[in-house]
Amino acid sequence: MRAQPELSDRPFALSSGAGERAEIVSVSPEAIRRGVRRGQSVAEARSLCAALDVQVVSPALEQAARGALLDAALSCSPRAELEPRRAGPYAGEAAVSADASGVASLFHGEAGFATALAQRAAAVGLPTRVAVASSRGVARVAARRLEADGETCLLAAGAESAFLASLPVDVLDPDDALAERLTRFGIHTLRDLLRLPLDSLAARLGPAALSLAAQARGECDLPPPAAPAETRFVESIDLEYPAERLEPLLFALQGLLSRLLARLEVRHLACDELTLALDFAGGGRDVRRIGVSAPTRELRVLVRLAAQSLESQPPRAAVCGAGLETRGAPLRRDQLDLFRPPGPAPGALAPALAELASLCGASRVGAPALADHHHPDALAIRPFAPATCDATPATDAGAFRLALRRLRPPALAEVQLRSGHPSRIRSAVCSGRVLRCAGPWRTTGGWWSREGRFAFDHFDAQIEDGTVARLRYDHVARTWQVDGVYD
Amino acid sequence: MSPTPDARVDALLRDLGSRLRRGSHEAARQTSGGRRHPTGLADVDALLGGGFPAGRLCEIAGSLSSGRTSLALALLAQATRAGEWTAFVDVADAFDPSSAHAAGVALPHVLWVRPQDSRQAARACARLLELRGFALIALDLPPPRQLALPPAAWQRLARAAAASGTSLIVLSEQRLTGTSSSLVLETRCARAQWSGMPALLEGLEIEAQVARMREGPARRIAAVRLCAASRAA
Q1: Pairwise CB contact (< 8 Å): B112 & A381
Q2: Burial of A9 by CB count in 10 Å (0-12 exposed, 13-18 middle, 19+ buried)?
Q3: CA distance linking residue A280 with residue A326, whole number of Å
Q4: Which CATH architecture does the domain made up of A5-57 adopt?
Q5: Tell me: the pLDDT tens digits for A205-235?
Q6: Is the CB of A404 less than 8 angstroms away from the CB of B99?
Q7: Which residues contact B183 (CB under 8 A, 6 or more apart)?
Q8: Cα(A73)–Cα(A113) distance, integer angstroms
Q9: Residue boundaries of the structural domains of chain B
Q10: Distances (CA, A) of B1 to A218, A435, B15
Q11: N or C: fewer beta carbons within 10 Å in chain A?
């Protein structure tokens, strides 16, 4: 439903596999109204509803939905956990437990907490039913009893037993063997179960029955939910057909990014760095990192960055699955200084930087820095964050300095020598007789590496066409180059 | 008897003539808010009436080794030392951090954007102007044969600069902005200075001439000679 919200008003079901004999594991409300139920075969379901749209369960989408549910819970409470997957009638259920202690004051009581949780789950594309109770087990049972999505339920402390008494034993989801034995003994409701003496219950039905009785009394042996150890947001999808061109792949990625950003927004986070994983039809995987210059929630910026990455490094085969992962980061909120000139609005700078990075390339936007390297072409760019830096430069700007315009890449040149100095030059930048020349100054480094070694002889030269240039002889490539012009 | 139309026009001109003058300094201060960005070079700042006007499209045009890049870095140095935010949109990919640092530019206060073509450069400039908060944006362009910006683009950028209060300084080999710019400064190299034995390059003597000034004194001011100090050791 998150990936295809247009199906929410149509009869739709998920099956455990392909084929008519596969079992229905999850059903939309519209399909329920037409008589389709969990556990039926696909053929039986289609006989009840001819317009039923059946799709095979996608583990990737299910995992992402469970993650989104957890995010919605964590947006309301710092401690939340996903409930383990269940078998049987609750196989298609996704449940999360959130600790509501101490947070009720933020939401004007537990009712407000439940409503907020339902709303935030809806914001990430998940219709939910929320129940608040004194224990995890009772809350889960109460939520299962709600009839419609978006409903909430509050159970006051001490009212658990009365609530549970009239419910069938199946609501506690006992294993099949125990359920059959209870049925044979005529135990149908939890009230019936609690009437049995505990000693004989354990002796006749085993320790599982004791645990069931404890749950029936509203007790819970599960610890309260804990805060998650790490924050990860993962969205993935299995494509219906392998994508051989970029356009359908980008369309799928746009959907993934949209859902990812919805989850980030509900947690008040932004996307700072993406990991894109592509699964290929013939096997194999391509994992690549997409850098974002500043945390952003702008969908078009992230789509453009992903498109740039795919265009610069196209997938080597048809793609059958894609996944996006990010850890999330707070949106940068730079506080301006009262005693310095004002800059851009703090909340507007980060999206603008991300947009510029998507336009020009992530490595081509930032603050320049002095490269800690001897190679004359070394380049260093740092994140642009002037609000955190002191404006005073290291050098005194009293003198008017002559600047060098770099040539990237350096322009090749043909040079004639006289007495070891350039006497005539021909290049795309400057040509003619060399009027004056100074040098050479030798720069070397990286001698320990065959690939990284370099050795240059630099000259300052005044050319008859009026250009004052910096020439260099590359001893490794054995070529003359113009690597800069004094301007 | 009511005055004739000619008499009314004469009276109007008599009343306004003392306050209206083509390109008066007072008018310039009113339209640009009086704010100027100095280069730190007294002769150049005097030539420009205090510096480059805020919120205007300006241009520094000159061939290679004419000193336009050094002027631009001096401008950035003054602005960044005052704590202003600046940007360098480097289409030519010629910005040298070492030279900028030696010129006194506070590098953390410079946003270096390296677009790969003129379309990206125009969009980057427009986005930065829309963002506001930058005192100066320098747009360094490659030789004209590699550039494809229509005249309408300069008009849009000039309007955006006026709306944001940011000075957009275009660096080019030939004049490109046409009538869209408020100020055009042309530079040329007078001579290169060599000294010592063996001779080392000490610097360049450059000349800067105001080729166009929309808001300024009616008379063109003569060229000014500058001597550039040598590069830092």
Answers
A1: yes
A2: exposed
A3: 21
A4: 3-Layer(aba) Sandwich (3.40)
A5: 788 888 888 777 777 667 777 777 778 899 9
A6: yes
A7: B48, B52, B53, B56, B58, B59, B210, B212, B213, B214, B216
A8: 10
A9: 36-227
A10: 106, 80, 21
A11: N
- pTM greater than the 0.95 cutoff: no
- Judge residue B198's burial from the number of C-beta atoms within 10 Å of its C-beta, 0-12 exposed, 13-18 middle, 19 or more buried: exposed
Q: Work out the burial of residue A50: count CB atoms within 10 Å of its CB; fewer than 13 is exposed, 13-18 middle, 19 or more buried.
A: exposed
Residue B89 touches chain A, beta carbons under 8 Å: no
Which value, in Å, is the radius of gyration of the alpha carbons in chain B? 20
Nearest Cα to A318, choosing from A238, A252, A241?
A241
- Is the CB of residue A315 less than 8 Å from the CB of residue A249? yes
Q: Do B114 and A360 touch (CB under 8 A)?
A: yes
- Are the C-beta atoms of residues A468 and A486 closer than 8 Å to each other? yes
Backbone dihedral region for residue A268 (phi beyond 0: left; psi -120 to 50: alpha; all else: beta): left
Task: State the CATH architecture for A232-387.
Answer: 2-Layer Sandwich (3.30)
Report CB contact under 8 Å: B97, A391: no
In the beta sheet, which residues pair with residue A436? A462
Structure tokens at A16: 């455990």
Q: Is B104's Cβ below 8 Å from some Cβ in A? A: yes
Q: How far is A308 from chain B (nearest CA, A)?
A: 13
Q: Which two tokens stand for residue A245?
A: 């061109």
Residues of A in contact with B93 (CB under 8 A): 406, 408
> Are the beta carbons of B200 and B173 closer than 8 angstroms?
no
Residues of chain A with pLDDT under 70: 87-92, 104, 220-221, 332-340, 346, 387-399
Residue range(s) occupied by CATH 3.30.1490.100 in chain A:
232-387
Cα A131 to Cα A145: distance, rounded to the nearest angstrom? 9
> What is the DSSP track for A220-281?
--SPPP---SS--EEEEEEEEEEE-SHHHHHHHHHHHHHHHHHHHHHTT-BEEEEEEEEEET
Most B CBs within 10 Å, among A293, A296, A405, to test the B interface: A405
- Give the bridge partners for A179, in sequence order: none
- A382: closest chain B residue by CA: B108
Nearest to A327 by CA among A240, A264, A247, A386: A264
At the top level of CATH, the class of B36-227 is: alpha beta
Helix boundaries (H) for chain B: 5-17, 25-32, 42-47, 68-81, 97-102, 118-131, 151-164
ipTM: 0.83
Backbone angles phi, psi at A467, to 5 degrees: -85, 140
Residue A366 in contact with residue A293, Cβ under 8 Å?
yes
A121-180 per-position pLDDT tens digit: 888 888 888 888 888 888 888 888 887 777 888 888 777 778 888 888 887 777 778 888
Of the candidates A360, A405, A467, the beta carbon closest to that of B69 is on A405
